[in-house]
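User: Please predict the structure of the protein below. I'd like the answer in structure-token form so I can feed it into my own downstream comparison script.

Assistant: Understood. Taking the following sequence of 530 residues as input:
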Amino acid sequence: MTEQAHVSRALVLAGTAHFTRKDLAQTIRGNWTTAADLFFRRMGTATQPSEGWTELRSWLRQFNDHRTDDVEGRIVLIDHRLTDPALPHDHKLLHLLRWLDPEGPVVHRGRPVTYRTLARACLRPYIGGDSAEGGDSGDEELLEELSGPHQLLDTLSGFAGLHRLEGVQRAWDEALAAWRATETAVWPAEVRNWAAEVGPGALLAALLPPEDLAEVLPPLPTEGPPVPSTGWYDRLLVAAGGRQTLFGRLAEVEWSDRARQEGRAWAGREEQRRRAEEEQRARREETARREKERRLAEEPRLREERRLAEEERRRRGRQAQEEEQERQRRLREWRAAEAVRLRPAARAGAVLRAFALGAVWALIPVVAVWLSWWFSSYEFDAAQVLSWLACVVSAAALYRLVPCAYRLGAAFRPRPLAPATWLPPTRAVLGTGAVLLVYGLIGGDSSSRASRIKADSDLLREVGLGKFLTYVGQNGTRDSFGDMLVGLLAVAAAAGCVWIGLQAGRITARRWEEKFARAQEQARGPERHQ
């Protein structure tokens, strides 16, 4: 391969053998698609290159005379351009054409490329008809490639005929970056769409040679800047670089009439608003003048009202001072009462009163039980159980009531003449009576003695108190299924009495605590408002 690389041989393209660089360049210009397909569309891999690419690379290597050939440019062309997988095949062919004949005509995708061609592509929406240089059928595709990532303008600037494009790519990129950073949210939607379509091309066209641009660009009539203008139009001109730039002139042609109409409409609205404000200000001044006259006319009455108001203020001040003194007196009394209420002796007395209250609660049902025993004559043992159940209710209530009495101290003071302060809750009374009645009806004949003689009130009246107590104290027991059931019933009744007593104690304690809280709230109210 090394020997063959320096052998002068022909490269066949489109049925023609080529020995020189210019001959191949001429054929490529006329057969662009054929050349791109043959050499670059399918190039293979580095280890297995395609036949077309192998032939082209081998043919290029024979131009190795540093005196007549651009050897370094050929090395860069092959190693960095033609083998770049990210570069489109049309761009690769353009790089090849630039190396083969940089002085010749520029062709891209079979279409001649001149300054006028570029100007037509940039100003496509403003140029109609066809031209001898290819018309406008590919202008949109050419502009898309120019704005692509492959720096097509830098490639075109390598041709002698387009040498004035050198540096244009960088300047265009900077202009595009500044333009795209512009805030366009205030622009109307159609203005944003127009700017997105025309802006890139207009910015590039402004960088092309003026004489070529003038031959392509039609006259741009303008009526001058709109007076008055609108905010979005002024920002559009700023983004375009001003009225003197090509982009600014195009924006003026497209949108100056609309901006002028909107400006006039805005000015009309502003004038109406100004007039409305003046009328409103005049009405306010007239209202203020009338109000001033009214105040002057009512000044004597106002002075009298102020005098009366001052007297009323002083009276209220004296009343507030008296109320404050009364509050302070009540507060001192409350604090003294609190000190007395929380003394150990007062708390001990409250606890004793709670036990007395519990004893009264137990005494009433116990008396009722023994009275019913005396008159209805049922077993003495059942009467004892009923008495204990009544005591259980009282003891359970004291479990809740004693702590409450200790906390309240002297404030816990049931009054005998006020039954509402010491009577148990109605539900507790009814519940206790129901439990005792149920047990009395079921276990009234239950006895712990084996004898069949009932220890009832009839036996007491018959044998006397001494023999009755002796009989009651006998230790004989009996075990039967019925007695076991009655015993279980007594346990259940005791549990019910515990629950009833707890509820009665809780309700009574809460009633006393709420009463004390109301009294405390009334007494401490002045202290909170100080």
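That's the full token string. The beta strands are 11-13, 16-18, 107-108, 111-112.
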